[in-house]
Design a protein that fits this description.
With about 270 residues, the protein is of the alpha/beta class. Helices cover about 50% and strands about 15% of the residues.
Length: about 270
C-alpha cells in the first residue's frame, strides 16, 4: 500500500474529507517551497500537489501561469523539483506528494529516468495534464513497478464511454475538474458538480477529489459534502504571490487559510 492509499484509508476510517493544496515548486524559491509544504501539513493538509514549472502551462489560469514564470525565473528545473521533494521527505515520510505538470519535461528526461528520480525522491503520484489516458500506457508501465499512481483528470465534458475507460485504468484517486476552462475560473455550480460526481461514483470505488473554482471555506465545505477530497490551488498560489517578500507573513496567512478550510471540511456531518 502506497502513501496515497494509506491516506485515503485513514480519511475514510475517520469519516473525514481529504484536503489537497496545490503549490508550484520553486515559487518563490525552492527553499521557501519546502517550508510552505511543511506549513501546509501542520495546518491540516492531507496530500500535497506540487506543480512542476513549465513554460507553456496551457491548462492553468493566469495566477498559476505566473507562479510557473516566477519559478522558472529562479532557474527551477525538474531536478530541482525532485530535490524539493527529497528535502521534504527528510522530515515527513507520511504525507503523499503528487507532481502535477506537463508531458514535455518528462519526455525530455525520458520516462524511465524521470520515474526513477521521482521514486527515489519520494513522489507518490503523477498528474500529466496533457497526456490523454489513451496514450498513457507507456508511462503507466514504467510507473507500476515503483508503486507511483498516475492520477487522471475528469471534466464536465467527459463522455460516459470515456469515463468508463478511465475508471478501469485509474489508481490512487480520480481528480474531477469541476469547471470548463482553466484553473482559477469562477462560477462553480454545486448542483452540476453533484450530478457528475454521482455519475463517476457509479463506475468506480476510487476516492474522488474535486478541484478548480474552490476559493474559500464555504465552497470547500459544499464540495466536500459530495466528494472525498477538495483541491485548492489558485487561491493558495495567490497568497504566496501577494506575500513573496515576507515569508513569515506568507506562512502565517497560509496557515490561517488552510486551517479555515480544514475546519470547514471537519464540520461536515
Amino acid at each position: 500500500m502506497n502513501r496515497i492509499n494509506a491516506c485515503f484509508d485513514a480519511i475514510k476510517k475517520n469519516n473525514k474529507k481529504a484536503l489537497i493544496p496545490f503549490i508550484t515548486a520553486g515559487d518563490p524559491s525552492s527553499r521557501v517551497t519546502v517550508s510552505i509544504m511543511h506549513e501546509l501539513v501542520l495546518a491540516g493538509s492531507d496530500i500535497i500537489e506540487l506543480g512542476v514549472p513549465f513554460s507553456d502551462p496551457m491548462a492553468d489560469g493566469p495566477i498559476i501561469q505566473r507562479a510557473s514564470e516566477r519559478a522558472l525565473a529562479q532557474g527551477t528545473n525538474t531536478d530541482d523539483v525532485f530535490k524539493i521533494v527529497e528535502e521534504f521527505r527528510g522530515y515527513d515520510e507520511v504525507t503523499p506528494i503528487i507532481l502535477m505538470g506537463y508531458l514535455n519535461p518528462i519526455e525530455i528526461m525520458g520516462y524511465k529516468n524521470f520515474v526513477d528520480k521521482a521514486a527515489k525522491a519520494g513522489v507518490d503520484g503523477l498528474i500529466v495534464v496533457d497526456l490523454p489516458p489513451e496514450e498513457s500506457t507507456g508511462l503507466q508501465e514504467v510507473l507500476k513497478p515503483y508503486d507511483i499512481d498516475q492520477i487522471f483528470l475528469l471534466s464536465p465534458t467527459t463522455i460516459n464511454e470515456r469515463l468508463s475507460k478511465i475508471c478501469e485504468i485509474a489508481a490512487g484517486f480520480l481528480y474531477y475538474v469541476s469547471l470548463k476552462g482553466v484553473t482559477g475560473s469562477d462560477k462553480l455550480d454545486i448542483k452540476l458538480v453533484k450530478e457528475k460526481i454521482y455519475e463517476i461514483k457509479s463506475k468506480t470505488t476510487l476516492p474522488l477529489a474535486v478541484g478548480f473554482g474552490i476559493k474559500d471555506s464555504k465552497i470547500a465545505k459544499a464540495v466536500g459534502e459530495i466528494s472525498d477530497a477538495v483541491v485548492i490551488g489558485s487561491a493558495l498560489v495567490n497568497i504566496i504571490a501577494n506575500h513573496a517578500n515576507d515569508v513569515d507573513v506568507m506562512k502565517k496567512t497560509i496557515r490561517s487559510f488552510i486551517q479555515n478550510l480544514r475546519e470547514a471540511l471537519d464540520s461536515i456531518q
